[in-house]
Amino acid sequence: MNFGNFEKPRTPLYGLVAALFIGAACLVAGCSGSGDNAYETFSLAMDKLAGEGKWSAKGHSTSFFGGDLTVEGVTVNMEKEGQTFEIATVELKKPLAKEELQSILDAADWKDRKETKLADGLVLKGLKRSWKQKGDATATSSLDELNLESLSLTAADSNAMAGLPGFLKAARIGKASYKNMKGTSTSPGGTIDMEMGLGQMMAENMAFDAPPLEGLDELDPSGLATVISSFSAKSISFKDMSMKMGQTEKSDEKSTMTFSLAGLDQKDVKGFRSLSSLTVTGMKFNMEGNDPQMTFGLESMSLNEADLTEYIAKIMPAIVASATGETDPEEAINNMQTFADFFVSPFSLKDMAVKGFEFSVGDLITIKLAESKVNGPLKAGTIPDKQQSTITGLEIILPEDPKHAEGEAAELYKFGQDFGMTRFVVDAAGEATYDPATGKLTTTTTKLVIKDLLEATGGLTINGLTAERLQVLKDTNLNAIFMVLLSPESIFGDIALDNLDITYTNKGLVERIYAYVGKTELDGAPAEQVQTMAAGAVSMGLAMQGSQYMENADVLAKSLTAFLQDPKTIRITLKPEPPLSFTSARAFEGDQNKILNSLNLTLIVNGEEGATPLRFNLPERQAPTYNLEDLDDMTDEEWEEYLKELEAEGAE
């Protein structure tokens, strides 16, 4: 889908900010004196904010006691920005006294102000906004009703910002809600359209007082984007959100994307970077017109105590550098990655659960998920002391209907038919523990089940991940490949593989592989014949060639042949002595056989006891030789390969 330079409509938050901009003018209606006096103050404020002669109203009235003001038929034209606002009615409840509001307008900034209550409430009904986008594209948005309750300005010091950013920074809203928000955008010729809507939004304790995103001032010197990034609220809920975007039939390529969200509840939102809980139900996404069509559905999701503060702080410099053209986006992303990213958490997260997930790509493949859970707590920049995760009912579905024997899904359809399965159901569970005092990390797969195919368990232990070593890894960029080649110990130190233990239990996978190979590669040979051929080929191959690479090739031949003939279980273990690290490998002086033999690699088949570790005897490798002229003429790729070969030989 190609939308060219099409600029999408502003988000609901930007619409709310625009409403607040108009609301700032509405707040000057005084509660003392006559209705005419209140409206004069309102007029003065509109002249200040919208510009003299840039707005109009059809009429106004005040409540019996003069405390509330209603203005009808407000229109604001901002020619410079190409925007027009229309508001059917503005209702202001118990606003601040005229004199104090006048002083706020006269000040033109929010410095050195005491805490000030502006009004009990502001209601905008029938709000419509239209504006021009790039080229001749136009956009409109509307709200049936915007309701703001308990509006005030917090105390501000001498460093407070001026203008709209300063007003937003000081603004406090006890409760905000709007109904039936709609937005449309159309490009020239009607080739690209966008529609979006939101049935209802409610928020409590809204402010712009959370820590802002660093670096946004470089992209928006006005400071408005930085202030908006510091948005916070006690709670936010959305209901019946929808969006439709696409190229119409008038264009060469018709394509449509639709999105809907029945509900979303968030709590303790801080700067778009952290929240204590998030609940989503009934999310749907659909993209059609282009091949293949994509659909996504999520019935429910729950999140607790997520914080992206440190992660966003890390990536913002790259985002800004990329946006300002200082560096290539791919280069910016690459420069953010360090060796520690393989071990530490990029963000903080306590709990997460997903239910009812479904994703499909045309007729090619469908993925469903009954439930997935992650329990931390994960903390940014650290390895969690304990972490657990589960996956239940992960289902991968290949094309099943014979109509897919032809077309884009033909290969996957054929594979499913030949393999004898089109639905793969996975259940998995795992956990990890970490001792920061010793730097020992243990990860365990407690369950991996693929129904009717296999079961597996496993564990891995790594030593040496101390706080000091992790800091070195955090300080070393992944692009520093030459440092790894020339001095790996300085980066990885005594990080060592302590043991690895994996057990595979066959539940039908091997038999299906035999049948598949016979059907697709051996002219329909039966599975039993393929099994006999496989066992014989392994036995003969190791008998003829194994002695060139192993001291006890007969042990490997016996184990593999036994499993191929009777595929029940196979267990693979590594117990390096000493634990394998760059330091220990260096001690073997580049002798690859000593390194391999130190792993104590064993294969235990069908529960066999007392398996003998495999012993290797690979031919000696000779390091390549180059004269100085060769080195001068090397490309970067050849130079890197040369360094790798030298390292393998233990060369300095």
Task: Describe this structure in a few short sentences.
The protein has 652 residues and is an alpha+beta fold. The protein is built from 19 helices and 21 strands.
Note down, in words, how this protein is organized.
This protein is of the alpha+beta class. 28% of the residues lie in helices and 38% in strands. Helix 13 packs across helix 14 (527-545). It starts with 11 loop residues before the first helix and ends with a helix.
pLDDT averaged residue by residue: 84
Structural class: alpha+beta
Helix content, binned percent: 25-40%
What is the tally of beta strands? Answer: 21
Poorly predicted runs are: 1-12, 25-35
Q: Give the overall shape, derived from the CA principal axes.
A: elongated
- Give a short account of the largest sheet: 21 strands, antiparallel
Q: N-to-C terminal Cα separation, in Å? A: 53 Å
Helix segment count? 19
- Estimated share of beta-strand residues: 35-45%
How big is the Rg? 33 Å
List keywords for this structure.
652 residues, alpha+beta, 21-stranded antiparallel β-sheet, 19 helices
Topology:
Elements: H1 12-26, H2 35-49, E1 55-56, E2 59-62, E3 68-78, E4 83-93, H3 98-107, E5 116-132, E6 138-153, H4 163-170, E7 171-186, E8 192-207, H5 216-219, H6 224-228, E9 232-247, E10 255-270, E11 274-288, E12 294-307, H7 309-323, H8 329-334, E13 348-361, E14 365-378, E15 386-397, H9 410-419, E16 423-435, E17 440-450, E18 454-463, H10 467-474, H11 481-486, H12 488-492, E19 496-506, H13 509-521, H14 527-545, H15 553-565, E20 569-574, H16 582-587, H17 592-598, E21 602-605, H18 628-633, H19 636-648
Antiparallel strand pairs: 1-3, 2-3, 3-4, 4-5, 5-6, 6-7, 7-8, 8-9, 9-10, 10-11, 11-12, 12-13, 13-14, 14-15, 15-16, 16-17, 17-18, 18-19, 19-20, 20-21
Helix pairs in contact: 1-2, 13-14, 14-15
